[in-house]
UniProtKB/TrEMBL annotation:
<comment type="similarity">
    <text>Belongs to the anaerobic coproporphyrinogen-III oxidase family. HemW subfamily.</text>
</comment>
<dbReference type="InterPro" id="IPR007197">
    <property type="entry name" value="rSAM"/>
</dbReference>
<dbReference type="InterPro" id="IPR034505">
    <property type="entry name" value="Coproporphyrinogen-III_oxidase"/>
</dbReference>
<keyword id="KW-0963">Cytoplasm</keyword>
<keyword id="KW-0479">Metal-binding</keyword>
<dbReference type="Pfam" id="PF04055">
    <property type="entry name" value="Radical_SAM"/>
</dbReference>
<protein>
    <recommendedName>
        <fullName>Heme chaperone HemW</fullName>
    </recommendedName>
</protein>
<keyword id="KW-0143">Chaperone</keyword>
<keyword id="KW-0408">Iron</keyword>
<keyword id="KW-0411">Iron-sulfur</keyword>
<dbReference type="InterPro" id="IPR058240">
    <property type="entry name" value="rSAM_sf"/>
</dbReference>
<dbReference type="InterPro" id="IPR004559">
    <property type="entry name" value="HemW-like"/>
</dbReference>
<keyword id="KW-0004">4Fe-4S</keyword>
<dbReference type="InterPro" id="IPR006638">
    <property type="entry name" value="Elp3/MiaA/NifB-like_rSAM"/>
</dbReference>
<keyword id="KW-0349">Heme</keyword>
<feature type="domain" description="Radical SAM core">
    <location>
        <begin position="24"/>
        <end position="267"/>
    </location>
</feature>
<comment type="function">
    <text>Probably acts as a heme chaperone, transferring heme to an unknown acceptor. Binds one molecule of heme per monomer, possibly covalently. Binds 1 [4Fe-4S] cluster. The cluster is coordinated with 3 cysteines and an exchangeable S-adenosyl-L-methionine.</text>
</comment>
Amino acid sequence: MAGPLPIGDPAPADGLLPAQAVDGAAERALGLYVHVPFCRVRCGYCDFNTYTATELRGATQADYAAQAIGELRFGAAALEASGLPPRELGTVFFGGGTPTLLPAAQLVEMLAAARREFGIRPGAEVTTEANPDSVDAAYLAELRDGGFTRVSFGMQSAVPSVLATLDRTHDPERVPLVVAWAREAGLDVSLDLIYSTPGERLADWRTSLEAAIVAAPDHLSAYSLIVEDGTKLARQVRRGELAAPDDDLAADMYELADELLAEAGFAWYEVSNWARGDEHRSRHNLGYWRGDDWWGVGPGAHSHVGGVRWWNAKHPAAYADRIAAGVSPAVGRETLDAAARETERVLLGIRIREGLEIASLPEPGRAAIAGLIAEELVEPRAALAGRLTLTRRGRLLADAVVRRLLA
């Protein structure tokens, strides 16, 4: 299970938002995230808010769809009562956990409820995450018939020893099969990879990248493994059973990914994400990086509207109790001030390919640009045209770039 929730102010039981959330809302996109917190087994590296069957303590998977639908009704009413203008959803994302542990009919039922309560824009992107061993061709076809447009498979690696270290249970040879099934169903396909797993060699990572490219997804994410406190992996590293990830090797792996993916026709659009053309970028995730609004449904889910953030009760049983009582499932929230929102805008905006408008930066940030160009951290031509975008080296050192811009 994930670590503790953030420290914030108590969230009101009626879910009403302050006036700050209303300002400018008509110009911001609205997305929906649905957290499905169930997994068959717990992966050793995972710090997400997920639960196996033995950890549910009174909550059940069978009841979850009805509870999520209850929050959808509550959320739509709370936004309206807070004075937010009506906005149809531009993106919907089911994450977890493993959403596809639920029957496809239940995912479709929750999506239909989102359509009833919020409305969904024509051409909206509707994604679910899935493990390769949790779906078959019929399941994927049912999702597509129910309104889903995209599936994101947790491939992680094509090397059995790496998957074993991560406690992943799927057969890597199943990945091209599920990608083909998704294609036949008419779904866009993304693959998620993890690199810098303890014991993983550069040659292993090349094998995984090449296997992912051969599978021919539309989109690919590659994340450097972070050893999170409280996980099985952290205990193994602390006891010396596994070596800690090597930062220099991780940088080599990132550069190899960017090279191979570019050769295969993928373009980076966010530090850890590549797509075959802009139409295949994750619009939902772009909403996070651009500071749009989203409502997060489910245990431990986080929401954001106009600089107001809140988070739900973590455990499925506690979440279910609040939904049954007809009160907000949120247990805490924070309202960002102007300085915090500006920091977040720079922190997230510099990560995407479009970068930041130089004119939007404060004077200390603008003064740092010459040095960033000299150190080959930002693209000089883009800077001359008025935008700050990262080079490959800059992507590896994105946090350092942000510190310079905000100094």
